[in-house]
């Protein structure tokens, strides 16, 4: 019996080979030997309005006035936001803004500082 690789998605050792594919019966993941561990990890790249890649902890600047939902206040253009955190979803930046508190922003409305 050949030594089969563990599942890249759930690390199960109960994988089996079917033709050119490896299959995990526990999570249902299918992969080829060439794709290996890369198929289990889909890394999303977050970009600002200018196309620069954003990372956790970056400092960004708001590029247009944004209405704050639920209040009558406006987040002004040019506001600097420090220590962002990237998350999946429609609003992909979690941050704290002085004077406003915790907020979620869309990466299309910021540029990297």
What does this structure look like?
The protein is 0% helix and 28% strand. The chain has strands at 16-18, 21-23, 30-31, 60-62, 66-67, 74-75, 80-81, 85-86, 93-97, 101-105, 110-112. Strands 1-2-3 form a three-stranded antiparallel sheet, with no helix packed on it. The chain has a three-stranded antiparallel sheet with strand order 7-4-11, with no helix packed on it. The protein is elongated. 10% of the residues are buried. The model has no long low-confidence stretch (mean pLDDT 86). This is Zinc ribbon domain-containing protein YjdM.
The quaternary organization reads as single chain
The number of distinct β-strands equals: 11
The topology string of helices and strands comes to: EEEEEEEEEEE
Put simply, the count of helices is 0
Strand content: 25-35%
Based on Cα principal axes, name the global outline: elongated
- Parts with pLDDT < 50 across at least 5 consecutive residues: none
Secondary structure category: mainly beta
How big is the Rg?
21 Å
Q: Largest sheet, if any?
A: 3 strands, antiparallel
Mean pLDDT: 86
CA distance, first residue to last residue: 56 Å
Helix content: under 10%
Strands across the major sheet, in which order?
1-2-3
Question: Secondary-structure blueprint of this entry?
Answer:
Elements: E1 16-18, E2 21-23, E3 30-31, E4 60-62, E5 66-67, E6 74-75, E7 80-81, E8 85-86, E9 93-97, E10 101-105, E11 110-112
Antiparallel strand pairs: 1-2, 2-3, 4-7, 4-11, 5-6, 8-9, 9-10
Organism: Tumebacillus lacus
InterPro entries: YjdM, YjdM_C, YjdM_N
Domain Protein YjdM C-terminal: 47-113
């Amino acid at each position: 019996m050949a030594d089969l690789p563990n599942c890249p998605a759930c690390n199960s050792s109960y994988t089996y080979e079917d033709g050119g594919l490896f299959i995990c019966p526990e999570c249902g993941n299918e992969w080829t030997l060439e794709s290996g561990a890369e198929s289990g990890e889909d890394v999303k790249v977050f970009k600002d309005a200018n196309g620069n890649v954003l990372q956790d902890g970056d400092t960004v600047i708001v590029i247009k006035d944004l209405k704050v939902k639920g209040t009558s206040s406006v987040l002004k253009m040019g506001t600097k936001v420090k220590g962002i955190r990237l998350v999946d979803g429609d609003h992909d930046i979690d941050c704290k803004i002085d004077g406003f508190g915790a907020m979620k922003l869309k990466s299309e409305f910021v540029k990297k500082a």
